[in-house]
Amino acid sequence: MSNKGNKRLIKRIHKEIEVLGEDTPYNCSAGPDSDEDITKWTATIIGPNETPYSGGVFELKIEFTPEYPFKPPKIYFKTPIYHCNINRRGGICLDILKDGAGGSWSPALTIGKVLLSICSLLSEPNPDDPLVPEIANLYKKNKGRHDELALQWCNQYARQ
Fold first, then answer.
1. Is it the case that residue 109 has pLDDT exceeding 50?
2. CA 77: distance to chain centroid?
3. Is 84 in the active site?
4. DSSP states of 20-36 as a string?
5. Nearest in space to 14 (alpha carbons), one of 99, 106, 96, 110
6. Do 87 and 131 contact (CB within 8 A), yes or no?
7. Longest Cα pair distance anywhere in the chain, in angstroms?
8. What is the mean pLDDT of residues 111-135?
9. pTM reported for the whole predicted model
10. Contact partners, residue 116, CB within 8 Å, separation at least 6
11. At 4, is the pLDDT very low, low, confident or very high (cuts 50, 70, 90)?
12. By CB neighbour count within 10 A (0-12 exposed, 13-18 middle, 19+ buried), where does 126 fall?
């Protein structure tokens, strides 16, 4: 990466830190893992009320690539979660995290807005665009059983 590109990236990440400090999304937090490399972050989302994830504490990893903010950051769940749009490796199927065709990433988006979108995904899964078709099918056919399993996973992996 060029020096100019690196400076632009670092400046934007510092702006992200500043914005998060002023306006932290409800039930979310995020920040750099260390002062030595501010491109690698840890985020936390508290499961939204009235969902099987309610009260669970979910850790996510965020990595800003040299192309940020023109391409989305890499974000994935570290805490296992039973969700049709999040796979076992923590990958998230969310349109704003996609770049190019079918994606709606915009450089105007901030990490705070992305975290809010992920929270919304926990409240309202999208079984029509699943990463895990089996979970999506269960969600559509037997939401009660789906929610039982999601709660079991939450209790097993996301309770402090």
1. yes
2. 7
3. no
4. HHHSPPTTEEEEES-SS
5. 110
6. yes
7. 54
8. 96
9. 0.93
10. 25, 28
11. low
12. middle
Confidence of residue 1 (pLDDT cuts 50, 70, 90): very low
- Of 28, 93, 119, 154, the active-site residue reads 93
pLDDT at 126 > cutoff 90: yes
The alpha-helical segments, DSSP class H, found in the chain are 3-22, 111-123, 133-141, 143-157
Q: Which residues contact residue 78 at a Cβ distance below 8 angstroms, ignoring those fewer than 6 apart?
A: 42, 59, 60, 61, 90
The dihedral built from the CA positions of residue 57, 156, 32 and 35, taken in this order, carries a sign that is positive
DSSP codes of every residue in 39-59:
TEEEEEEEPPTTSTTTT-EEE
CB burial of 9-25 (b: ≥16 within 10 Å; e: otherwise) equals beeebeebbeebeeeeb
What mean pLDDT, rounded, does the chain reach? Answer: 93
